[in-house]
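User: I'm writing a tutorial on reading structure tokens. Could you give me a worked example: one chain, its sequence, then its tokens, then a sentence or two explaining what the tokens reveal?
Assistant: Sure. Here is the example chain.
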Amino acid sequence: MSKPYNTFAGPSMRGPPGAGVGGPMEARAPGSVFTPGKRHRMNMVPIILNIFLPWFTFSALFAAMSFSFHYQHPAAAWLLVLLGLIITAASGFIAYRYHSRERDPTWLIFSTLALLLAVMLAAIFGDMNFWYNMQPFYDIENLNTYPSVNPAREKGQQLMDAGRVYFADGTGLDMRRAMGFKNLDLYCVAPIVHGEEALASYDFWAVGINCCSGVSSDFRCGEFNNPHARSGLRLMRDDQRPFFRLAVQQAEAAYNIKATHPLFFYWMQDPVAEMNAYRDDGFKYYLLGIFTHFAFNLFCVVVFTVLGSKIGRY
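And here are its predicted structure tokens:
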């Protein structure tokens, strides 16, 4: 008598669990963070590294490009940027090796992109911060300070290294001989004189941008209306100096005066406070930059982690 149980295959005749069409353990290609795959335990090490490593890189390069290191060693500062790019390329190469060995390179790819962004942003914004804020501060700090300068007696050649100049009592702006030169912006100049006497050479000029009409003597730059202003902070922008020189040449022709060696200053009461404002702005923009980058990088890591969790990687 046959046994009904013989109609079923025994354990030795069954295939492996999950075998067959549509089985739950059907073979799959190795997954990545962008394709559903086998759920893994979340690894906090790459998450923490990707939060802090790009931020440390950005902060260090931003500081090197913004402050005295860039001023004293400009070539070395750009070499640090190049080193950051080399490290970024090394991270990308390691990610490629992981992929070629069928290991998940997801966080390495993220690290490469985050480091590249950190290096580029630090180089661009650090150089801008240095150019607009810290370099003028360092330039003026390294120049000389002259007290009680009388424009009627002193010549421009005598104060070639002047950074801050405090003029003698009775010194003011000669609004009658103001002039403007237009080249996209309006470069305005007015001679700094002592009293009403005419000078053999007008070598000291107050300057400003877009603060005069250019067609009449209406200089309104700096602290032109401050009766206590009797000081000048040296113009340090090499890209602006030629245009102010052209404005002086126009004034020479229009008013029949002579300016043998003109020096350009921002007219103000307290040059030290103005100079320190450059430094304070440089540090303010540095702190704003590093905190903004940290928040942005943290946001990217969180989004990337949540994305991996949503599609079943973690």
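What the tokens reveal: Helices lie at 44-66, 68-72, 74-100, 106-141, 241-255, 271-310. Residues 1-37 have pLDDT under 50 and may be disordered.
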